[in-house]
Amino acid sequence: MSKLAFVFPGQGSQAIGMGKEFAMSDDACKQFMQKADKALGFELSQLMLEGPQDELTVTYNAQPALLTVGAMIAARLESEGIVPDYSAGHSLGEYTALVESKVLSFEDAVVAVHKRGLYMNEAVPSGKGAMAAILGMDRDVLESITQNITESGDPVQPANLNCPGQIVISGAKAGVDKACVALKEAGAKRALPLNVSGPFHSVLMEPAAGELEKTLADIEMTDASIPVIANVTADVVTDQQEIKKLLVEQLYSPVRWEESVEKLLELGVTRFVECGPGKVLSGLIRKIDRTATVYPVYDEESLQKLLEEAKEWS
Fold first, then answer.
1. Which member of 89, 105, 128, 238 lies 3.0 to 4.6 Å from 224 by CB, making a disulfide possible if both were Cys?
2. Per the confidence metrics, is the pTM higher than 0.90?
């Protein structure tokens, strides 16, 4: 029987006005913004709805904002009778998946990711770290080149293994710059520097991981009611203690998104619903497997389209 997965985007998908249509038309959705404001002690909802964009994009704001919208959309879908068999998220999105899987309460999660953003922001001084998207490069060759540069004293490593032909690298600015040159010389089609505030998913995030571990230790979790695919292992996880451990490792480990999607396909998932602003994950999933059916849900129109098609699901 065909199975369904909810997937949740990470940083980069944030946009002013995200979630507005849902919050205006549905009181339950509006409550997610109200709960976030109360839990955080500031008007996150105003920032989400009105901006400014540069302030919304700061990591410790973008993370709780994206989690709020993703959780809101997933709850709306469940109220319409659409419930996933599995959940997964890209980086920050993994926390939204854990809310959907009832591992974390929404309030605990929104506070945790705000703190996660603060720790990530503080881990590496501005300008000292960097990330870049590498297109059209074999993974083994990329890993060999980045390892050689790291061993020479400038740490750089794969950070997001997104889909065939798209890998993001992260690390010290000098390491990323050297890697971009070396990878293009080795045959990469493009090396695109990313406009991010830090070297996420690299060893330089280990100080942030230490702080995050302390924060997560004080948060109550339960075993997953819906199996989650973890970024670090690209495998199913349901045990709360294992989840907590993997969330800490996730900060300095690659996001194995391509393998995570392949795992879901292996488990029988044929339909994916992306809950959140934009269509980034939908695009990646289609590049990983063109036979997968993907529904990005980010406003009322896209929601109604999904609900109409869901009537035909067997």
1. 238
2. yes
